[in-house]
Amino acid sequence: MTVKPRLSFGQIINMNVGFFGIQYSFGLQQSAVNPIYDFLGATPDQLPLLNLAGPVTGLLIQPLIGTLSDKTWHPRFGRRKPYFFAGAFFCSLCLFLYPFSSTLWMAVGLLWILDAANNTAMEPYRALIADKLPASQQPTGFLTQSFFTGLGITLANVSLFIFQKHIHGEHGQIPYWVFASFFLGSLCSISSVGWSIYKTPEIPPTPEELAKLRASKGGFTEPFREIFHALKYMPAVMWKLALVYLFQWYALFCYWQNASKSIAQSVWKTAPNQNRNLYEEAVGWTGLVNGWYNVVTFLSAFALVGLARKYSPKMVHFVCLLMAGAGLVIFPHIENKYLLFAPMTGFGIAWASMMGVPYLMVVGHIPKERYGVYMGIINMMIVIPMILQNLTFGFVLKNILNNDPGKAISFAGVFLFIAASATLLIKSVKADPEMEIPLPVGH
Question: What CATH number has the domain spanning 9-204+220-423?
Answer without folding.
Answer: 1.20.1250.20
